Structures are given as C-alpha cells and as structure tokens.
Amino acid sequence: MQRFFRTPTFAGLVLLGIVAVLLSNLLPASGVVAQDQPSAHVARPAPAMSPFVDVHAHPDPSDPERSVRAALEAMKLENAAKMVLMPPPFTADDPGRFDAEIILRAAQGHADALAVLGGGGSLNAMIQQSVRSGDVGPEVRRKFKDRAEELLRLGAVGFGELTAEHFQGATPYQSAPPDHPLFLLLADIAAVHGVPIDLHMEAVPQPMPLPAPLKSPPNPPQLQANIAAFERLLEHNPHARIIWAHAGWDNTGYRTPGLCRRLLQAHPNLYMDVKIDPLKPGKNSPLSSGASGAIKSEWLKLFQDFPDRFVLGSDQHYPEPLPGPQRWEAIVLLLNQLPADLRQKIGIDNPNRLYPTSSVRADKQEARSCMLLGFVGRGGSGIGGAHTSDWLGGGGGGFARTGHPDALQQTMMDTVQR
Ligand SMILES: [Zn+2]
Questions:
Q1: What gap in Å lies between CA 219 and CA 26, rounded to an integer?
Q2: What CA–CA distance (Å, rounded) separates 357 from 190?
Q3: Residue 160 contacts residue 86 (beta carbons within 8 Å)
Q4: β-bridge pairing 159-166 and 118-119
Q5: Phi, psi values for residue 177, rounded to 5°
Q6: Ligand 1: centre distance to CA 16 (Å)
Q7: How much distance in Å is there from the Cα of 198 to the middle of ligand 1?
Q8: How do residues 365-382 score in pLDDT, each as one tens digit?
Q9: Alpha carbon of 161 to ligand 1 centroid (Å)
Q10: How far is residue 132's CA from residue 128's CA, in Å, rounded to a whole number?
Q11: Helix, strand or coil for residue 153?
Q12: Strand, coil or helix: what is 215?
C-alpha cells in the first residue's frame, strides 16, 4: 500500500514541477502587467500631515485586547490622535454579536486615545426585531431606553453603529425606517445626554431596484425609500446630533455631494463621517480615482461650505486585514489634500465637539462607577502630540470611567433575547 501511494505522489510531484516550469514561463508577462497597475506597488502612504481623530473603527471581537494594541500601534503610523471603536450593527440572532462591553474592557487605561460607541450589538438588534414584530409597545421602549442609558453609564460616548439600510456584508442585509419609533426614542436619549448617534444608511431617495453590482439574494431585489424618513428623524429632535456614516462611500448612486449638501443645509443637527474604501470605492468617492487621486472639486466645496459638519470615519478594522491597502490610508490621503484650517476642523475640532464629555461630568461618573463597582479608573497622558485638550477634559477620566463591564455583560444578552 505504501508503495502504491508513494509512486503516484512522486509522479504528482514531477507533474507539479512541470506545471511550475510552464507557469514560470508565463509569469514574466503577467508580472509586467501587475507592475503597471498602480495598486500593485503603491508604497504605504505618508501619515496625516496633522493629527486627526478617526471616529469610526471596528475591533475584532475574538481578541479585543489584541485589537486595541493593533489600533494604538497603527495610530502612531497614521498620526491619529484619537480613535472611536464600535461594534457593527448586528441582528439579534447573529452568533457573532457583541457590543461595547468587550471593547470598553479592552480599552481600559487608554482613555486618552480611545473612545467607544455602543448599541450595535443590542440597540440595533432591538430595532431590527421591532421592525419584524411590529411591537413598539411600552415594554419594548422601556427595555430599549434602559439599555441605551446603561451603555452610557458603562462609558460609551454615544450610540453606534446603528443602521437603517445596510447591504449584506459581514452582517446580513438590514433595513428599518429611520423614523421608526425606537430611532426617535434614541434621538431623544442622545439629545438628553449630549451624545451622538452613528447611523449607517444607504441613500435611497425613492423606491428603486437593487443597484449593480449588488446581488439579490442576499439583498432584496427592491429597496424602500428612506431619505424623507431620515429627515423626519433629524427634525424629531434638533438637539440630537446624528452622524450619517460613510459619506464618500456610496453604494446606491444617490449619496451624492448634492444630496449631502441639501440635507446639511436643511438640518443643522446632521453630521457626516467620511469613508473611502480602497477595495470598493463605490459610486461617489471624493477622490478622482476612487481611493487615490485628487480631491474632487464638488466634494472640496462641500467640505468648505460645511466645515463644522464633517468628521473622518475610516471604518477600518483592527488588527488591519491583510494584505492590501487599508481604509485609513484613503482618508489620510483625503485629509492631506485639505487646507490646514479645514484639516484642523474636520480632523480635530469637530470630533471634539461631537463627543463632548466635560471633565466635570467624566469625573463625576468615574467616581460613581468606582463607588458602585469597585473599579478605579485611570486617566491617560495623551499621545500623538495633538491639540485635543478639550477631548474629555484633556484625558483625565474619560473612557476610564467604564466601571466594570463584566458585571453587566449578561444584562446586554438578556435584554436582546428577552
Ligand atoms: Zn457601516
């Protein structure tokens, strides 16, 4: 038997050798082609010319501590001063579902550099559940509000990532009316606490067939309009600051600078975080060649006309997926093309204003957390040399006021499953 197997294996190796020789003869031609493609040999881009805050990044839940270490390391290369980590928007039955607790725990001790949004693994799942069941009764609302406020007590500085229209990706297709009663309730809670909502919503101004190259299934063949309902959400509570995620990453063809302009003009509580995906730039990238090239004039004009309303949200995952260009590289490329005053606003001032937690409030909450949960928070000393002194009162307190997430992890799971 041994001999029987050994012989074909040897023959197989010889055959493989022949194939390899044949391939090697073909390789020079394909190698030349690869070298001609700019993406094949692009050197890692320079870091940001001035420090910036990345308000939209995701950890790997299988190893949050490693994710935090990777993010902190990458921030030095990027010249990122701060980063906001958050769970993606999950459905209730997703086995990979997680929420702010595991990120907060891993980020402890890095309040100077990292902030956390919560609700992607719980509030979003509750909204999707409610859309399906049609139940928006008092009990559903009470549980939703309790969970939202719990997230803030734990140390989340806002709510994210929520979604009203999300194509199949790492998470399944999801859709909910942006003026769903639970979104309106969340806007009220966010307004009371002075924290933002980060909302992922593909732009669908009117009912339309699923645009190419998206496939159905897993996405539906027909999309429901959502912009009018989104405007009702924005109008519902003008004190709720809503960050419409992923400006510059358009998958329907309707997230144009023109639509962004009209909505920014009409709704002073609307903000946008800018994303450029090098692997999938979409239909309306701010850069002339997708994820590279010069900034398009109509986008630059939009940033200049609304300098207080944009932030950078790379949607980068940490540790960085290998290989290939990373999402943070593309937004840094964009940032470096902005005039210095705009770089300062979009990179630093706007995020500082959007995630406001005064040192007084942070200290009070930290003291309370310590008393209730026996956790001693630690402030940080700041990194990156950024002028971000008003971020959570200059890095004392801040996200270290997270209490001890372990104690409440089960509460989150129960809340959604109930
Ligand atoms: Zn998203």
A1: 40
A2: 13
A3: yes
A4: parallel
A5: -60, 130
A6: 44
A7: 9
A8: 433 332 222 222 222 222
A9: 7
A10: 6
A11: helix
A12: coil
Neighbours of 39 (CB within 10 A): 13
Q: How do the pLDDT tens digits run along the chain, 418 residues long?
A: 333 333 333 333 333 333 333 333 333 333 223 333 444 445 666 899 999 999 999 999 999 999 999 999 999 999 999 999 999 999 999 999 999 999 999 999 999 999 999 999 999 999 999 999 999 999 999 999 999 999 999 999 999 999 999 999 989 999 999 999 999 999 999 999 999 999 999 999 999 999 999 999 999 999 999 999 999 999 999 999 999 999 999 999 999 999 999 999 999 999 999 999 999 999 999 999 999 999 999 999 999 999 999 999 999 999 998 788 999 999 999 999 999 999 999 999 999 999 865 332 333 343 333 222 222 222 222 222 222 233 332 332 233 333 333 333 433 444 444 3
Contact 357, 393 (CB under 8 A): yes
Contact 98, 121 (CB under 8 A): yes
What number of residues does the chain have?
418
User: What spacing in Å lies between the alpha carbon of 328 and ligand 1's midpoint?
Assistant: 14
- Relative to beta strand 222-223, strand 242-247 is unpaired
Question: What is the whole-number distance in angstroms between the Cα of residue 250 and the centre of ligand 1?
Answer: 11
* C-beta of residue 147 within 8 angstroms of C-beta of residue 126: yes
DSSP secondary structure code for residue 398 in this structure: G
Distance CA 358, CA 327 (A): 31
383 secondary structure, DSSP code: -
Q: Extract the runs of DSSP E, i.e. beta strands, from 167-312.
A: 174-175, 197-201, 208-209, 222-223, 242-247, 270-274, 310-312
DSSP 8-class letter at 349: I
| Both structure tokens of 404 | 């001890």
- Ligand 1 mean position, distance from CA 31 (Å): 35
- Those residues with Cβ within 8 angstroms of residue 330's Cβ, 6 or more apart along the chain or in another chain: 276, 277, 278, 287, 291, 292, 314
Question: Which tokens belong to 366?
Answer: 């930290």
- Distance, in Å, from the CA atom of 272 to the CA atom of 275, rounded to the nearest integer, reads 10
Ligand 1 centre to CA of 3 (Å) is 56
CB-side neighbour CA atoms (13 Å) of 116: 34
